[in-house]
Amino acid sequence: MRIEKMDIRKTSEVSLTTYLLDNSTQFANITDRPAVLILPGGGYYHTSDREAEPIAMAYLAEGFHAFVLRYSVGEASSFETAFNDGEKALKWLKDYAAQWGVNKDKIAVAGFSAGGHLAAALGTMGTIRPNALILGYPCILSGISLAFSIPSVDNEVDDQTPPTFLFTSFEDARVPVKHSLRFMEALHQNNIPFESHIFQSGRHGLSLAKPLTSSGMKQLIDSDFSKWFDLTVSWLHRLFGEFPAE
Which of 24, 51, 100, 224 has its CB surrounded by the most CB atoms within 10 Å? Predict the structure, then answer.
């Protein structure tokens, strides 16, 4: 595996980390791979480690290249700055697709909480759009308490918005389920395919909902909620196609 950290801005805190699987003659059926660009949450105050490398490792194990974007955060920043970081990272994935062995027509952006807002913005407002969105307990609506003000991205859904997978929980008190419901309604109105899973239990910020991402706290473990990951892999294979095996 090739890991490289590339600075998006002059500060190393805003960066794109690449996790690229190695080629091998034993993977002769794979010439290039789909990729997942991961945007951790953190209320736009920080980017969560729990929603960064562990998510990348999980997708790598399923044969995807993975990338983690540490975008601009903090009260001194702005949505426009973070959005520009996201657009630059997505452009890099497209521009370096051949070098990195990425299928540039099979790039998903997976965002969590505030990262879900940024992912949804890239899928609705971006000049370069991803080919799929995965939104985990995403912030969608303005007015929620974050490091800076954000636009309501449900108002930005158009006919160029990519197919979307959403997951959240009924019990999420930090980002109420209405955020996801509003985005789903906008997708439906624009005839954009989507799949959604609203789990009954689960607090905000569960990440993989497994012990390895729990920080040692039982409330961040939920075996039912953890099923979101396998569901996204199945969905991506239906959308992008499986690795060939004839």
Answer: 51
CATH architecture of 2-240: 3-Layer(aba) Sandwich (3.40)
Q: Which residues contact 49 (CB under 8 A, 6 or more apart)?
A: 40
Tens of pLDDT along the chain (246 residues) come to 999 999 998 777 899 999 999 988 899 899 899 999 999 999 999 999 999 999 999 999 999 999 999 999 999 999 999 999 999 999 999 999 999 999 999 999 999 999 999 999 999 999 999 999 999 999 999 999 999 999 999 999 999 999 999 999 999 999 999 999 999 999 999 999 999 999 999 999 999 999 999 999 999 999 999 999 999 999 999 999 999 887
Residue in 111, 128, 112, 108 with CA at minimum distance from that of residue 235: 108
Place of tokens 């997976």: 110
Q: How far apart are CA 46 and CA 121, in angstroms?
A: 18
Domain ranges of the chain: 2-240
DSSP character string of the chain: -EEEEEESSSSTTSEEEEEEPPP-GGGTT-SSEEEEEEE--STTT---GGGSHHHHHHHHTTT-EEEEEE---STTS-HHHHHHHHHHHHHHHHHTHHHHTEEEEEEEEEEETHHHHHHHHHHHH-SS--SEEEEES---STTS--SS----GGGG--TTPPPEEEEEETT-SSS-THHHHHHHHHHHHTT--EEEEEESS--TT-TT-SGGGTTT-GGG--TTGGGHHHHHHHHHHHHH-PPP--
